[in-house]
Amino acid sequence: MVKDSDIVGGCQCGAVRYRVTSLGRSSVCHCRMCQRAFGAFYAPLVIANGLEWTRGTRQLFASSNVSQRGFCAACGTPLSLENFDDDQIEIATGTLDDPELAPPTLQINHRYAPSFTDDVGKLPEPDRETVADNDAWNAKVISYQKR
Question: Where does the pLDDT of residue 146 fall: very low under 50, low under 70, confident under 90, or very high at 90 and above?
């Protein structure tokens, strides 16, 4: 059972943190604005009910006439998508301390997805030697990401 206090997250450097009381619809959006904002093929987003920014201040960029995007000015982490015409805020699922709390249940704007995205999960995994090399490399990594 997830307690309200367990639904927390923030940016890579720890300058901006948040807490939510509950999570709503979790989706991935394939629109070009989301692709660019996340630097990825899609943006995983989840509705954040009872959102409270608990550390730092997110910066805002008006990405269109209907919405703005929150991000950390220090490290660049995309944090939120906020519509001007309502008080609904979606947070970037990957910024949750436990993204397993918000598995996507819906694809939005799929018609804008690059042609190859549906097959990404079908790509082959590397051979054992490459996996061992990656594991050895990852064992040397010291993450500077903060909570």
Answer: confident
Written as one letter, the residue type at 121 is G
Mean pLDDT (the chain, rounded): 94
Question: In whole angstroms, how far apart are CA 111 and each of 30, 42, 84, 115?
Answer: 8, 12, 24, 9
**% helix / strand / coil in the chain, to the nearest 5?**
25, 35, 40
Q: 84-115 pLDDT, tens per residue? A: 999 899 999 999 999 999 999 999 999 999 99
Q: pTM of the entire structure?
A: 0.89
Contact 16, 61 (CB under 8 A): no
Domain topology for 4-140: 2.170.150
Report the distance separating Cα 123 and Cα 125, nearest Å. 7
Q: What is the dihedral of CA 129, 134, 136, 140, to 10 degrees?
A: 170
- Please state, as a whole number, how many other Cβ atoms lie within 10 Å of the Cβ of residue 10: 26
Burial of 84 (0-12, 13-18, 19+ CB in 10 A): exposed
- Going from N- to C-terminal start, the domains of the chain cover 4-140
